[in-house]
Structure formats: C-alpha cells, structure tokens
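Field log, afternoon session.

UNIT: design team B
ACTIVITY: writing a sequence onto a fixed backbone
BACKBONE:
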C-alpha cells in the first residue's frame, strides 16, 4: 500500500466517524501522545510497538491531509535530499553535516 493510499483511507475514516478534521494543533498533540505511547511500548511492551507506530503514522498523514500535503511526494523528495547529504563524525562520535552539505543547503534554500 502506498503512503498516498494510507493518507486517503485515514482521512475518509476520520470524516466518516466524525473525528477531528480542522483543529491542527489538536492533531499535533494527539500525534505526540501516540509517539509517546510508542516509546512506552518499546520500553515496556514491545509486542504493541507496531500498533503504536501505526497510530502515530495515521495522525501524521492526517496532519498532511489537513494541510493539503501529499505525504507520499514529500517523503520521496526528502529521501532524495537526504541521499545527497554528507556527514562527518566529530571527535566525540557525533555525526554532523559536512561544510559541503551546509553550503549546498544554504544555496538552495533548504
């Protein structure tokens, strides 16, 4: 199933059931709550992690739909952008974008 299909099915379900379709801050809060539940599932009940991650995804695609964003296209574009980035590891082991990546992103407005 494509992300675009998930987005449409999720939206159709929200409309059919009378769930929130207009309050964007509420939808962000609910998505945050679901992500917190996924975190807790990962720590305490890993058998439920998949369901909690799915709940989080459903709220994210709803947010995209509220704003008229085709999340399928947005994810594809972001993956392509990430593929061009380069990183280096600091002395403490943290990965940071290289100067070339930062310079490129400044020029293209990223």
């Amino acid at each position: 199933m494509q992300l675009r299909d998930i987005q449409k099915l999720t939206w159709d379900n929200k409309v059919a059931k009378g769930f929130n379709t207009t309050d964007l801050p509420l939808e962000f809060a609910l998505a945050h709550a679901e992500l917190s539940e996924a975190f807790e599932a990962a720590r305490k009940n890993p058998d439920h992690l998949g369901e909690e991650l799915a709940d989080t995804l459903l709220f994210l695609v709803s947010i995209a739909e509220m704003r008229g964003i085709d999340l399928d296209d947005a994810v594809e574009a972001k993956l392509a952008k990430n593929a061009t980035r380069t990183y280096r590891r600091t002395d403490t082991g943290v990965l940071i974008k290289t100067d070339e990546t930062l310079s490129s992103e400044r020029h293209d407005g990223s």
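LOG NOTE: The first strand starts at residue 87 and ends at 89.
NEXT ACTIVITY: expression trials, pending approval
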